[in-house]
Amino acid sequence: MKKIIILFSLVLLLYLVYHNSEVDAITIPDTAIRLRVVPNSNSAHDLEMKGKVKEYLEQNVYPLLKDTKTIEEAKYTITNKLDVINKDIGKIFKDNNYNQDYIINFGSNYFPNKTHKSIVYPEGYYDSLVVYIGESRGDNWWCVLFPPLCLLEADDEEETSNVEYTFLVKEILAKIF
Fold first, then answer.
1. Contact at 8 Å (CB) between 121 and 114?
2. Are residues 130 and 171 in the same domain?
3. Which residue positions in the chain have pLDDT lower than 70?
C-alpha cells in the first residue's frame, strides 16, 4: 500500500510540474509576423533545401528587423526587401542545382494547427512571410519573425544542447522496487 501511495504522489507531482511549465511558455502576440518554409516534399534533398532557406532567412531577415519597434515598421521593411529575398533564394537554389519553383508570399497566409512544447497554436490566417517550394507537400518549418521569438528559442536550445536528461520517476521507482 505504501508503494502505491508513493507512486500516486509522484504521478501527481509530475502532473503539477508539467502543468505549471505550460503557463510559462512563450505565446505568439496578436501583432506578430510569422515565418514559414514549406518544402516540396520530405525527401532528403528537399528537406536539405528547406534548411538552407530557413538558415538564409534567419541570418538575413532577422537582422533587418532587430531595431524594429512596431509591426508597421516590420511590414514596411520586409516589403522593401522582398526582391532581395527572392533573388537570394533563387541563388541558393541555383548554387545547389535545385530545380524547383518557389513562391514567396508576404501577407495573410494559412497556418494549420501546430503543437510545440505542449502548446497548441490554432490554425488560421496570420500575417506572415511564407516560402512555398515546389508542390509544398513536405513538413514545414515555422517560427515568429517579428517579434523575433525564434531566436530566443534557438538561444535556449543552444544553452541546453549538452544537457543530459533523465527520468526522475524511473530513478525513484528503481530505488523503491
1. yes
2. no
3. 1-27, 116, 149-177
